[in-house]
Write a structure and sequence with these properties.
Order of helices and strands of chain A: EHEHEHEHHEHEHEEEEHEEHEHEHH
Shape of chain B: globular
Strand order of the largest sheet of chain A: 3-2-4-5-7-6-12
Oligomer: heterodimer
Radius of gyration of chain A: 20 Å
Strand order of the largest sheet of chain B: 2-1-3-4-8-7
Distance between the termini of chain A: 43 Å
Chain lengths: 330, 388
């Protein structure tokens, strides 16, 4: 059974599923209770679950994230909302120095079943300090898991998996897509981490992305088919740590060409990792160098036209695909 | 040697605390009890003088036990310093010499199910909770038999079964964790509490202020049974309290967060003991946090090796050594004829032997198996996500 729901509803459903299963699952964050959540993800939940299960916190990211780590070490399973991931820099010491490492430096004596979630990336004119894509920042650190679901079904299923995971999970939501709709399975639709999703099958070129860039790639694939007769495969990585290397290798073995797309800046980004994995494991299958399409190397601007110009565009993606196919760019 | 005894007669608790306070530099502030009046149910907390009358009825046997605990810690720390100088102990190592009465006194009030969390000067907390000195020393020696399998070293001692929730290396970074643990203790409907140790230096960190704010807030609903124990050893590394904050009354900083607080003479085990017993029971009962600033002094260097003459005078160190917590207690035990010099020596010899054994054990133990490099990164099946 599946129903059409928004990304927001699906996400909420995943969290509620976790709360129903285990009273150690609580929600914490700024204005998630009485106010209903800045992005209305938790709207109404405090009425149903009460202030202990849906806890409003002070504006104190380092403090409440650290406290949630302490709770998790005691067997609770907190889900912490970052109002946006941009604010997580204030909690980065807690996330990186404590959540990611305490299991290791305690010799395996503790675990940290913690989910930290919130909107990642830009697209709604929030300008420099409120626009970041933090997947490679957090994905760099052993001890963390990092996921970035883009479909309503995945956001629910991956949230259920994240809640049940005994490790700290960085849950990067496609903030610009909270209102988008899709089919969502009823009940426990757990989506395993470390498994990419083939969002569109194709034979000529592989477009690899995650988060809202997957939708960009799907649009680019349609254009390529219509205008160039090219069959593009789109891989939605959705889980960045653990990372499904096999999925991209298998696809490239079929298509022999790859374009990696990311909203974040190019330097030290996920797309570079994708390119490195392909050259490492599928070098002999490649008919062209892997191309990365990334955001402009600038802090995010405010003006709409500048912001749009700073993110990967459909034209950039289609032209990158044409380049690896050695056909004329448009 | 750092086993000095006080010159002259033992002072009263009040005289001792006052002298510490005056020496440490203008800690007493008139009238500050008022600022907490709305929250304080026990009047006079935060006022050292008011406890003069209370006295301490500590049985002599108990005092000897406490003496033994302090000697255990001191002997261990001296062996640790030696191991560091020999190159057997790597990385950073921070010893507790001079501060023993604080952890010894407070952990005397530890009850099963309670939790302890501290920063990186963490050897005494593990030892006093019952961790095997052999395993603690082996950890410092980087051996597979170490308390955390050689993965954490001196700064990261954990013994979760005994309530030791860790030593942490980033100043102030552990404080929010401790507050969260205390919250969980109430959320899970236990009567356990968290003893959260922190240094004077950590109180300039944002993490401290955020965590204290949360503790006060959650405490309003009886949901934060946390005792903040400030080990004010007067210096954050080499920078004195006076050089790091304009408001040097560290206990009073907790007023800002609605947390009851007081100071205690951290060199006087009996004073610490009295304070710890009373405060931990209050916190256990109320679920509200409480802060104690223990005035103490690290007579050893910050790390196992630094040049402490650069930031403090020999006279200052000498003066504090006159108030060495072990020396003070020895004098009390001798004056009360609880024990004689031979008895004290026997205890020291006993721990010397025990720690010598711990050192031998650490020295002779194997390094961790190389496979251990890859374990404990994650909990569960996919423990490691890289190439081996």
């Amino acid at each position: 059974m599946a129903e059409t729901k928004t990304y927001r509803e699906a996400l909420r459903e995943g969290m509620v599923h976790g709360m129903e299963q285990d009273e150690n699952v609580i929600l914490m964050g700024e204005d998630i209770g009485v106010y209903g959540g800045t992005h209305l993800i938790t709207d109404g939940l405090i009425d149903e679950w009460g202030p202990q299960r849906v806890m409003d916190t002070p504006i104190s990211e380092g403090g409440f994230t650290g406290a949630a780590i302490g709770m998790a070490m005691m067997g609770m399973r907190p889900i912490v909302e970052m109002m946006t991931w941009n604010f997580s820099f204030l909690a980065a010491d807690q996330i990186i120095q404590n959540a990611a490492k305490v299991r290791y430096f305690s010799g395996g004596q503790v675990k940290v079943p913690l989910v930290i979630r919130g909107p990642n990336g830009g697209g709604v004119q929030l300008s420099a300090q409120h626009t970041h894509s933090l997947e490679s920042f957090y994905g760099h650190f052993p001890g963390l898991k990092v996921v970035a679901p883009v479909t309503p079904n995945d956001v629910k299923g991956m949230m259920i998996t994240a809640i049940n995971d005994d490790n700290p999970v960085i849950f990067l939501e496609a903030g610009a897509l909270y209102g988008t709709k899709g089919e969502v399975e009823e009940g426990d639709n757990s989506v395993p981490f470390g498994k990419a999703r083939v969002a569109r099958e194709g034979d000529d070129v592989t477009l690899i992305a995650y988060g809202r860039q997957v939708n960009l790639c799907l649009r680019a694939a349609e254009t390529l088919e219509e205008e160039d007769g090219v069959s593009a495969e789109v891989i939605d990585l959705r889980s960045l740590r653990p990372f499904d290397e096999d999925a991209i290798v298998e696809s490239v073995e079929k298509t022999h060409r790859a374009v990696a797309v990311q909203e974040q800046w190019r330097w030290f980004g996920v797309a570079s990792e994708v390119a490195a994995i392909i050259q490492d494991r599928a070098f002999d299958y490649l008919d062209a160098p892997v191309i990365r399409v990334s955001g402009a190397e600038v802090p995010a601007p405010y003006a709409r036209n500048l912001e749009v110009a700073g993110f990967p565009s459909e034209d950039q993606v289609t032209n990158a695909a044409r380049r690896v196919l050695y056909i004329e760019e448009k | 040697m750092l086993w000095n005894r006080p010159m002259g007669a033992i002072k009263t608790v009040y005289e001792v605390v006052k002298s510490v306070i005056l020496f440490a530099g203008s800690y007493l502030q008139e009238g500050r009890g008022d600022s907490m009046s709305a929250e304080n149910e026990n009047s006079g907390n935060g006022d050292v003088e008011s406890r003069e009358e209370g006295g301490v009825a500590t049985s002599t046997d108990r005092l000897v036990d406490l003496y033994r605990n302090m000697v255990l810690v001191r002997t261990f720390e001296e062996a640790c310093q030696k191991g560091f100088r020999q190159g057997k102990v790597g990385g950073y190592t921070h010893v507790y010499i001079g501060e023993e009465a604080v952890a010894t006194g407070f952990l005397d009030s530890f009850k099963e199910g309670d939790k302890v969390i501290t920063a990186y000067r963490d050897h005494p907390h593990a030892l006093l909770l019952g961790s095997d000195p052999k395993e603690v020393m082996a950890e410092l020696y980087g051996k597979g038999t170490g308390l955390v399998k050689g993965k954490g070293g001196s700064m990261h001692l954990f013994d979760v079964e005994r309530g030791m929730m860790g030593g942490y290396g980033i100043v102030g970074g552990h404080i929010p964790l401790g507050v969260g643990m205390a919250y969980a203790q109430r959320y899970q409907e236990t009567d356990h509490i968290t003893q959260l140790y922190l240094g004077d230096g950590s109180m300039s960190q944002g993490a401290f202020h955020e965590a204290a704010n949360l503790a006060g807030l959650w405490g309003k609903g009886g949901m934060c049974p946390c005792v903040f124990i400030v080990e004010n050893n007067q210096y954050g590394m080499g920078t004195s309290v006076e050089r790091t904050t304009a408001m040097t009354d560290l206990a009073a900083k907790f007023d800002a967060y609605g947390i009851e607080n007081e100071k205690v003479d951290g060199m006087d085990i009996e004073a610490v003991l009295e304070c710890a017993g009373r405060v931990t029971e209050q916190v256990r009962e109320s679920g509200k946090p409480y802060a104690v600033e223990a005035l103490t002094y690290r007579t050893a260097p910050h790390g196992a090796a630094d040049f402490f003459e650069k930031y403090r005078t020999k006279e200052e160190v000498k003066e504090w050594r006159q108030r060495d917590p072990i020396g003070l207690l020895e004098q009390k035990l001798l004056d009360s004829e609880t024990i004689d010099e031979d008895g004290l020596q026997e205890i020291k010899d006993e721990y010397k032997e025990q720690i010598d054994e711990a050192v031998s054990f650490a020295d002779e133990s194997e390094e961790p198996a190389i496979e251990e490099l890859y374990t404990d990164v994650y909990s569960g099946e996919d423990e490691y996500m890289g190439e081996e």
